[in-house]
C-alpha cells in the first residue's frame, strides 16, 4: 500500500486539504494517508514548524501532499521557527530539487486574468524552478559589522548566491526532458550579464543542450523574462531557472492566468518522489470562512498520482472531474464571475467527488 504524508498546515490549508482527501478517497485507490502538523500549526503544538515526527513521516512516505504554511502572526518569531522553514526544510531534507509550476489559463477563466483575454487564451506554460540551491540555501549568510563596502563599521546582512555544476546539470536534464514531452522549446532564464552564478548556469545549460538537439533552447535575462511574461506569455513553452528567479517568475506567471486558485505544483527528487502543493499560499485573511478554492490542491493530488504513484488513469479522472465542474459553471469566490454559480470550498470538493463517481458509474 502506498503511503502519503498529508500535511495541511496553516490558514486555508486544512480546508482545502480536506477536499483533496475527499477526492482521493472517492477513487478507492488503497492509499494509506498519514496526517501531521506542519508550519505555524506545528510550532503551536510542538514548538517547531517541522517537528522530527513530521519530517520522519514525510521521509518514509511515497509522496507528500502539502497544504500551505504561514501567517502574519508568526512574523516576529526568529527565522528558524517561522512557518516557511517547514517547506524549506522539507525541500532540503527530501532533496526536492526540481519544482514544476504549470501556468495554465483555463478556457472558462480567460476573463479572470489581469491581461487582455487574447494574450492569455490557451496559455499553457511550465516553469521549472531549481529548488534546493541558490541564495535560498547558500552559505555563508548572516549579520555582521561591515569591514568594507560603502559604510565600514555599519551593521550589514549578507546572503550567498551559489550554484555548482552538478546542481545545474541535473535541473537542466529535467527541463530538457520536460520540454521534449511538450512543444520542445526551452527558455533558460538567468542574469548572466551581471552574475557569476548565472554565467555558469548558462554555460552548463548550453553544454547539456548538446544531448537534446531536438529541443530549441534560448536564453533570457530575468528582467526581460519578467517583461515578456506580461507582454507575450504565449511565446513561452518551458522555462527553467534558479531558485530565486523561479520564485518570482512563477508567481507572475500564475497570476496572469487568472487561476492561481487552480494551479498545482510538484517538487521532485531524483527518483520522482515528490511533494505536491497548490501554487497559492495560506491566505490567512480568508481562513476558516469556507470560501477558499480547493481545486489547486485537488489538482496537486492528481499530479501526485501521476508523477510519484504511477497512477495516470486515476489522475486523469480527477482532471476530467475538475473540467466537468468548471463546465457546470461552479466557481469559488476567487474565480466567480457574472452568470456562474458561486460555491463554497466544501461544495466544490463535493462536486468534484460527484463528477468522479458519476463517470465511474457510466464506465462500469
Ligand atoms: C514558494 C514560496 C516559498 C518560497 C516560501 C513560503 C518560503 O514563496 O513556494 O514559492 O519562497 O519558495
Ligand atoms: Mg513563492
TrEMBL record:
Pfam family, one: Iso_dh
GO biological process, one term: L-leucine biosynthetic process
Binding of NAD(+), residues: 281-293
Binding site for Mg(2+): 223, 247, 251
UniProt pathway: Amino-acid biosynthesis; L-leucine biosynthesis; L-leucine from 3-methyl-2-oxobutanoate: step 3/4
Reaction equation(s) it catalyzes: (2R,3S)-3-isopropylmalate + NAD(+) = 4-methyl-2-oxopentanoate + CO2 + NADH
Residue numbers binding substrate: 91, 101, 129, 223
SMART domains: Iso_dh (SM01329)
Cofactor, how bound (note): Binds 1 Mg(2+) or Mn(2+) ion per subunit.
Positions of the Isopropylmalate dehydrogenase-like domain: 3-352
Primary subcellular site in the record, as a coarse category: cytoplasm
Enzyme class: oxidoreductase
Superkingdom per UniProt: Bacteria
Cofactor(s) this protein requires: Mn(2+); Mg(2+)
Keyword Oxidoreductase in record: yes
UniProt keyword terms in alphabetical order: Amino-acid biosynthesis, Branched-chain amino acid biosynthesis, Cytoplasm, Leucine biosynthesis, Magnesium, Manganese, Metal-binding, NAD, Oxidoreductase
A molecular-function term among this protein's GO annotations: NAD binding
Role according to the record: Catalyzes the oxidation of 3-carboxy-2-hydroxy-4-methylpentanoate (3-isopropylmalate) to 3-carboxy-4-methyl-2-oxopentanoate. The product decarboxylates to 4-methyl-2 oxopentanoate.
Subunit structure: Homodimer.
Family to which the UniProt record says this protein belongs: Belongs to the isocitrate and isopropylmalate dehydrogenases family. LeuB type 1 subfamily.
Record protein name field: 3-isopropylmalate dehydrogenase
Gene it is expressed from: leuB
Amino acid at each position: 500500500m502506498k503511503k502519503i504524508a498529508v500535511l495541511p498546515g496553516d490558514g486555508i490549508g486544512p480546508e482545502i486539504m480536506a477536499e483533496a482527501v475527499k477526492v482521493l478517497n472517492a477513487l478507492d485507490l488503497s492509499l494509506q494517508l498519514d496526517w501531521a502538523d506542519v508550519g505555524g500549526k506545528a510550532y503551536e503544538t510542538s514548538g517547531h514548524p517541522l517537528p522530527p515526527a513530521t519530517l520522519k513521516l514525510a521521509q518514509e512516505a511515497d509522496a507528500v501532499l502539502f497544504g500551505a504554511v504561514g501567517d502574519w502572526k508568526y512574523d516576529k518569531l526568529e527565522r528558524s521557527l517561522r512557518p516557511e522553514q517547514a517547506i524549506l526544510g522539507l525541500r532540503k531534507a527530501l532533496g526536492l530539487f526540481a519544482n514544476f509550476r504549470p501556468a495554465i489559463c483555463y478556457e472558462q477563466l480567460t476573463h479572470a486574468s489581469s491581461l487582455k483575454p487574447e494574450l492569455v487564451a490557451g496559455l499553457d506554460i511550465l516553469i521549472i524552478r531549481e529548488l534546493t540551491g541558490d541564495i535560498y540555501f547558500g552559505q555563508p549568510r548572516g549579520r555582521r559589522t561591515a569591514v568594507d563596502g560603502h559604510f565600514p563599521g555599519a551593521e550589514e546582512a549578507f546572503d550567498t548566491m551559489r550554484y555548482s555544476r552538478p546542481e545545474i546539470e541535473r535541473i537542466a536534464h529535467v527541463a530538457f526532458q520536460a520540454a521534449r514531452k511538450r512543444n520542445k522549446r526551452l527558455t533558460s532564464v538567468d542574469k548572466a550579464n551581471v552574475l557569476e552564478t548565472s554565467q555558469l548556469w548558462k554555460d552548463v545549460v548550453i553544454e547539456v543542450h548538446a544531448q537534446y538537439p531536438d529541443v530549441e533552447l534560448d536564453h533570457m535575462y530575468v528582467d526581460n523574462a519578467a517583461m515578456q511574461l506580461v507582454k507575450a506569455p504565449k511565446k513561452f513553452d518551458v522555462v527553467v531557472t534558479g531558485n530565486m528567479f523561479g520564485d518570482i517568475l512563477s508567481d507572475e506567471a500564475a497570476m496572469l492566468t487568472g487561476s492561481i486558485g487552480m494551479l498545482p505544483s510538484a517538487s521532485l527528487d531524483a527518483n520522482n518522489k515528490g511533494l505536491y502543493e497548490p501554487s497559492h499560499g495560506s491566505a490567512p485573511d480568508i481562513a476558516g470562512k469556507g470560501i477558499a478554492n480547493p481545486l489547486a490542491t485537488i489538482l496537486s493530488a492528481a499530479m501526485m498520482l501521476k508523477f510519484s504513484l504511477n497512477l495516470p488513469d486515476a489522475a486523469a479522472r480527477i482532471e476530467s472531474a475538475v473540467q466537468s465542474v468548471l463546465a457546470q459553471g461552479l466557481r469559488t469566490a476567487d474565480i466567480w464571475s457574472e452568470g456562474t454559480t458561486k460555491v463554497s470550498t466544501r461544495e466544490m470538493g463535493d462536486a468534484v467527488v460527484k463528477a468522479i463517481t458519476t463517470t465511474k458509474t457510466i464506465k462500469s
